[in-house]
Amino acid sequence: MNTSRPTNDKLFIFDVNPSNDDVTKELVIGNFSRVVKNLSDYQNVVFLSHSNLSLMKKLIEDIGIKNGFVISDNGSRIYDIDKGTIVYENFINKSDVLAGLHLGIMENCLVLLSGSNKEYAYSANIMSALTLSKKHYAALPWTNDYSQIEKFINSTMIHSLLFFQRTKEMIVESLKHIYPVYRDWNFNLHQGQSSYFTLTDNKSSKYSALLKLIEHLKIKTFDNVYYYAINTITERCLKSFKNKLIFQDIALASKYYADIEDQAKVDDVIDNIKNIISDSFEVKLTTKQILYDTKKIKKLHK
Fold first, then answer.
1. What is the Cα–Cα distance from 155 to 75, expressed in whole angstroms?
2. If DSSP states are collapsed to H, E and C, what string results for the chain?
3. How far apart are CA 159 and CA 78, in angstroms?
4. Are 55 and 18 within 8 A, CB to CB?
5. How far from 202 is each of 35, 74, 199, CA to CA, in Å?
6. For residue 48, what are the contacts with CB-CB under 8 A and spacing of at least 6?
7. What are the residues whose beta carbons fall under 8 Å from the beta carbon of 211, sequence distance 6 or more?
8. What is the pLDDT of residues 153-191, one digit of tens each?
9. Residue 100 φ/ψ, nearest 5 degrees
10. Are 247 and 39 in contact (CB under 8 A)?
11. How far apart (Å, rounded) are the C-alpha atoms in residues 149 and 160?
12. Which residues contact residue 137 at a Cβ distance below 8 angstroms, ignoring those fewer than 6 apart?
């Protein structure tokens, strides 16, 4: 295994929403896991997500990634996996955090606050907390005690706020009320494909963080950037990068993307990556069956 930092001029982007869905399990314990792990030893790899950095660290640890980068919190943080250091970060000032929290409370949303070292959710509705807990990749710490969430806000930097409702229709209704006022607190609003949206400071987005990373890696052309929408989609990436594939499951789940040409099944994505970097790809995989690592399965179900 090559454990040195990749020096090539390609960047492979994996847009992920860590959850308990089949696509995430394929990323962690299936053939695709082996592809990504091998790829990260020889190429520049970045995991792109709206999720908290601590949750993303758990994901890459479960996959076994040693090299590459994580862009978390919808672009608020860039993390170097190999060095274990923050390359770039932004945070929301505390008065705006409180304003955002109160917006969520008024809309009866669960609000998930992403701090520097952990995430913590506030909800007065236990059903919202239970619903998100079932979808969450790791255990979801939450409270209905406002004083506890206030202590959390005062003890750490907050990088993003996620607003969750049990259905997409409910979150769309909440957005109607929040859209007219959120800019008063210097937020960027990022709408997800399902029943959530996030707020960051007004300088942060996934795409702007990617541009910073591309500059950091001295990648000179977008021709060497490859974007894979695993189980979430960043619209700006679809428009900007000509080398792109959307996992078919996420494309079919969205009426907007159902007819897009650049969609593929898991095996097709594996073949696409292998063809791009065939000279340095060492692990031989069968794409006709999914091979599972028993130890990882046990770890996931603890």
1. 22
2. CCCCCCCCCCEEEEECCCECCHHHHHHHHCHHHHHHHHHHHHCEEEEECCCCHHHHHHHHHHHCCCCCEEEEHHHCEEEECCCCEEEEECCECHHHHHHHHHHHHHCCCEEEEEECCCEEEECCCHHHHHHHHHHECCCCCEECCHHHHHHHHHHCCEEEEEEECCCHHHHHHHHHHHCCCHHHHCEEEEECCCCEEEEEECCCCHHHHHHHHHHHCCCCCHHHEEEEECCCCCHHHHHHCCEEEEEHHHHHCCCCCCCCCCEECHHHHHHHHHHHCCCCCCCCCCCCCCCCCHHHHHHHCC
3. 12
4. yes
5. 35, 11, 9
6. 13, 14, 15, 16, 71, 206, 210, 234, 237
7. none
8. 999 999 999 999 988 889 989 989 888 887 777 899 998
9. -65, -40
10. no
11. 14
12. 18, 19, 20, 24, 51, 55, 58, 59
Hey, what are 67's tokens?
């090299």
Per-residue confidence band for 294, with pLDDT thresholds at 50, 70 and 90: very low
What digits encode the pLDDT tens for the residues 8-40?
Answer: 789 999 999 998 777 788 888 788 888 899 899
How many residues does the structure list for the chain? 302
Residue type, 69: F
Q: Name the residue with tokens 């942060």.
A: 204
Tell me the two tokens of residue 162.
């996620």
* Site of tokens 């340095």: 280
